[in-house]
Structure formats: C-alpha cells, structure tokens
C-alpha cells in the first residue's frame, strides 16, 4: 500500500509505517467549525475521508474516540466518547454522541475504519473546542464610543472615524491555554502585544444586527507574554453604521460601532484569569482611520498613527474611558462560516497618465478588494485613489453606474521614508484606478491589487477544448468569488452590494463545484430564518438592508428552499433541512393562505427579471411577447416547492406532511394546465421560453404532450431567438440542463458559445472579465449595469460540470454518496475535464475524442459508487486501460440506451475507451 497524506482542517499530517492491508483515513472535519473552535452544538457532526488507490473500496464499520486530552485518546481512556465499533458505511455527518460538552472545552478525536479491503490505523489526532454555550458565559459588557470627533458627520456621504480600544493586564503564572472571543461590529481588527490575530479581514461576517450577532474565537495562547500584556482592537463601521440605504440618520447615532470581548486564560495550575470588555478599557477615535464607509471608501492619515498602542506600556492617559452601551440584539452566536481573507494578489498591467496629472491603473481584470500602494514622499502628501469598472472613451473613469458610491480611498503620508498602505474596513469593485497626488512618477511596482472574499478553498476546476467556454468559465469564477462577502451579494461596486436571494438560487449550485461554500450557505440559511416574520413572510434580501420591506412573491424568498436543497444534495447536509423545515413550511403555507386563488399562485413581483430587451438602450423589455406572466411563474414555482417540501418532510421525519403536499401539488398541477396550457398550440402562456421551460423542468406537463411542448420551445429558441438566450434570471436557472436532459445538448452548446448579443460570449467579445448584470450591460442605462453580477449565470456553470463533463450526485444519494456520470459531447468539443472535492474525496471526469475513440478518465472517491454512462453501442466495445470492461472487478452492467452503456462501478481510477458513435446529442 502507498503511504498517504492525512489531511485535517487544522493542517497536514503524514502517516507513516502503515501495516500491510491498512487503509488510511484522512481529512478529519468538524462540521460547523471554521478552524475548529467556537462550536456551539452539543452534538457536532464529524466527517472523514478515506484516501486509497484501491478499487471498489467500501467502509463497513468505524470507531470514533473523543477525549479531553491527546493522552486519553485510547479505547480504554477516552473520557468523552468511545463509539465502539459501529457497523456502518457512514463517514459524513456522524453525530457526536458522548458526554455533554462545556463552554470552552477542548475535544481531541480520532477515527479508524474497517473496509472490505482491510482495517485502517487510527487517524492522526484532530481537535475542536466548544464556544460559549450559555448567555451567562459572557462576562464582558458591550462597550463603545458614541462621542463624535472632528470630521465625523451625518450626511448623504457620512463620515465616522474608527474607534481604537486598548486594555493592559498581567499574567502571573504559566499559561496553559488562552482563548479570545470577540464581537466587533460593524468590523474589527484584534491585536495582542503588537501582533494582529488571524489573517482575516473585514470581519465578522455581516448579519441583520437587530436579529443576531456573531462572535469569532481564537486560540491566542502563543500570543501572551509572561508579565505585562496589551490588547488592542480597532472598530470600523462595516454595514452597522449608516451607509445610505435603510438606516436613518437618527438610527445611525444609535449604531456607532461597538464591541463585546472576553479573554479566558487558563493557567497550568488550573486557575483562571478572565479579561473582559468594560468601562476600564481606554478608547479614542483620534487615530489614523479618519473615515470608513463601504460605499465611499477609507481615509487614512498616517500622521496620526498611534505608534505602539497595541503593546504594553503605551501612554493612553489622554484617551477616554470606554462607554457602556446597549447590546444590538439578544442573540449571540458563534460564526460558523469562514471570515474573509486576501485570497489572491494581482499586479496592474498598465499605467497611463492623464492631462490633469493623474494616472490610470488597469488591473487587467474586474475584481473586488482593494489597492495596496507603496510610496516615498513628504509629510502631508495626499494620494487619492478612485475606483471604477470601466473607462470613458477619453480614458478617464466611468462612474455613472456606481450611483452614489464614491469608491475613493485617501492616504495622507507621514513622510519618513518608504510607506506602504492598504485600507482596513472597506472594499471596492473595480478594474481601473485613478491615482492623484502620487509623489513622483508611479510605476506598476508601486501597486498591488488584493482580491478579497470568504476564506473557503477552491475545490473544483473545469476546462474544455472550446476557448470561449473556458473564458466564460473564468469570468464566472471571478464574478462568483468577487461577490462572496460574508454573505452572497449582488455586486461589489455601487451603492447596493446586497444579498438578493434569487441572484444565487441556482448560481450557488455551480459555485458549489468550484468553492467549498457549505459553511457560508449554512450561515445564510440562518440569516433567512432570522428574517422571517411571525406570520411566515420572508423578504427578498437577507440579511435585510432595511430599505425594501416585505413584498411577497414566490421566486425570491423561495431561494430559502433551493439553498436548503443545495446543501442536502451537494454536501449531504441533512441537519440543515431538519433545522429549517418548520420555517420553510411556515413561509410556504403563508403564501398558500394569502395568495393561492383556485390553486393559482398570484403573488409575483419581478417576473423573469432582466430578459434580453429588444433595444440595446433598454434595461427592461417593453415587448410583452418577451415577458412571462408572473402568476404562471409563481404557480410553477409553488408546485416545485411542494414537491421539494415533500422530500424535505421525509428527511426531517415529518412524514405526516407528505400526503398533504402531494395532494395539493396534484390540484395545483391540474389548475395550472387548465389555466395556461393551449392544447391546440402545445404551448404555455404566451409561448416565451420561460413559460414552457418551467412546467417542463418541474414535471407539470402531461406525458402525452411533453414532447410537443418541448418541440414548441425549441422552435421558439431556433426560429424566433435565432438560437440565442431569451430568458431572464428565472428561466436561465433551468435552461441549459433542461435542453440537455431532453436531448438538445447541441442547442445548449450553441447558446453557450454565441458571440453576439445576447450571450455570455458577447460579454467576452466586449472585453469583459466578469459577468454583467444585463445582457446589454455595455449600452443600457447606467443606473443598472453592474459589470460584476452573478444573476445571469443561471445554471451555466452547473451545466458545464454536470453535463459537459458529466459529474453530479445521483438522485437519492445526497452528498455524492453515489455519482451519476454522463458526459455530453456537444458541437465541436473534443474534450472536457472537471473535478471537485466531494464529502468523500476528489471526483474527476476527463474525456477526450481522439481518432474516433472516446477516452474517458474517471476517479471515484473511496466509500462511494458511480453510475457511468459510456457512449458505446455494446459492452464489448468498452475497455479499461486495454482490459475488457467485463473483466474489471466491481463493474456491473446496468442497462443500455440508444447510445450509451450504463455501468455501476466502485471507487478508484479508470480509463474507459470505446469507439465513439458520433451522436452529439447523446
């Protein structure tokens, strides 16, 4: 057996000296942990992966040990939990079932498994620690500074300086463990003895601060000194203080940044020292960050830097005492999703001078983050940086689409040699930067762009033989990552940046292949639940910015159910369904009671938002032949959600609800067809693509006319739309997969690779490096033409992974426990390759057409199976690396279609080769 790396959430360990026949267990993951500390669940879910080259490997049993120290991690001494040998193939979301856990308790754990190929060694030790489980565990008080300092203003473009807090204390004994808990809203940075804690930025993740706030937890044992110590925190405004939307000036006075902090120090002798936030802390706003507004930018005066303020011995006698302030809300929770970090660094590709003495930097791509600069100047020199996505024809910044957002950073130099700076509490959406006041002539080496998004890893990749599709995929990935900001937002540049639900309803499915977004979406589900009103209503934006109110409709709030389904199917997370099922039902039944009229759901607000308009100057189409009836959309989605809730009821154990959903769904389906289906024309509604697509995708069309409706839709796409996209936000979420499912992958491929308006390729041809908000985003009114928007991606990226590459979770087997691999050859494609990290390990599909042969490399993770559908006419045509497939262990024949052989195979790597039959629509 090969030696294999053992991965855990906290590092990489190499396991050596494995006994013969041992299989190695790796990637110990504690669900709901960021860095596995701060867990609040009494029964955290444990997951592991098995890494092995063996084919057909299946786990048959496991044993988990959990103890209070690594020394006690033996079957005899494990003092928290010894599961004993459990006969099971479960390795994902295995619930801890040991003794009750206490606040701050550290838990060490390991696992071994038995498989059909042998027994493993014990895995390396992993650990997690508990958060503060009771409200009474918080001994600190909320502190802030409500006094306004010179320069602070409440106006359209508000200004508020950062708040600087500090506290000194002494340790008198040897420290065994030190844990810091902090809530700093809007945003914070934490320092101990001069060192910044963590690599995160723009923390914590935003919530609706009136409903819940989230704390971060850090192990700071190694940051403490013997004797005198100092804590420093900086508070920025984030989305707590006034930015424009939804918060009045008066409310802003009540929403000045505040903090709750606790440092729990455990000495080696078992005694403890608790350092908490109270009015003994010192505070000032007379520091270098003079203003920070997410829309407008940050102003930093280096002449006012507080040198040494985070270290012991600093003279803070002129600082004020912190004020005790009101808590923002009652609910305090551990932040389960990763904080944002600097994920990538890009260098500008060009710098051009303007006639007014300013310079324009081109970063080479549309990005979200900030600009880091270095310069040498004299005291008081002021460098101004303005950010925008595009340029005017004369080479100056185009800022009309930013609306009121200024996107401007100002840095005032202190004048003592080389100075380097980047902002702390803002980010920008931009490709171009206007730099004014730079001392001397700037060069490209004086600047770096730092791309910021949530700290999850990239876990997937896609590429194919079509260069345009590869560029579209790259643009989609940039757009997706740019808009993850502690919540999924619509855009990163203008005065909005809000988490509109429907923008991500299906885009998130494609994103789940590329990024490990599970924890972020678990948190977002909580945001949605907190936003629900007592009667069941839900908003279109969550967390709410406060300016939209509740305007009921099916499609936007229904994202609550769609994201729950995503977490179930892609990650195997059944817990989230159990937790949110009551709230989901409450919303759906509220909509039923208020808006279901004779089984037609009449509530709709946006329709099929942003269909391609007939004129390049329009934002929204005025041609009624292009728009889809809102009640048709609402009723189709209501039916779809009834089906979804029926399956959720099974998962959550609410099986008594299943029959009610099914009965109502049948009545809705009957009424829908009676109201919208034209029997003579075989079309729904006014025959838009969306009006036919939704009932097809949701299974609402009677079987005897299903083919006719589909042909009617195809006729519309080809003859009226000239094989271009004509759907908006709603229809595009289902278009590519439904075309492919029904045998028209050729048409889906044509739509995906068009280069003229309207298409994703049109954006590429116009030089876009991200996806636009509008299909005509280069010509429409600037009030709504963000160049960095996810909503028009629909199911495009999911289609690339699931259909072109052939990589998806099989129905009925959540979290890729069993894979369905059916690659599609389309157009002139000669290859497609995709991989993603499933809960069980890495899965890969990589096919090539070469000299009339279909060559397909696949990797199936251990402890899973896959149904592979190979484009061959017979089993005898298929070989695996030269060996007839009939002689491969574990490969079982399932059946044959007109163009494919279906096999079930176990884990491992395979290379299938067969003669290609040439059917591009297989």
Automatic annotation (TrEMBL):
Q: Name one Pfam family in it.
A: Bac_rhamnosid_N
BP GO annotations: carbohydrate metabolic process
Q: Which UniProt keywords apply?
A: Hydrolase
Alphabetical list of SUPFAM superfamilies matching this protein:
Six-hairpin glycosidases
Describe the location of the Bacterial alpha-L-rhamnosidase N-terminal domain by residue ranges.
173-340
Q: What Enzyme Commission number(s) apply to this enzyme?
A: 3.2.1.40
Residue ranges occupied by any Alpha-L-rhamnosidase C-terminal domain in the UniProt entry: 811-880
Q: Output the superkingdom of the source species.
A: Bacteria
Query: What GO MF annotations does this protein's record show?
Result: alpha-L-rhamnosidase activity
Catalytic reaction equation(s): Hydrolysis of terminal non-reducing alpha-L-rhamnose residues in alpha-L-rhamnosides
Name of the protein in its database record: alpha-L-rhamnosidase
Q: Where is the Alpha-L-rhamnosidase concanavalin-like domain?
A: 354-453
State the organism named in the record.
Mangrovibacterium marinum
The Alpha-L-rhamnosidase six-hairpin glycosidase domain, residue ranges: 459-803
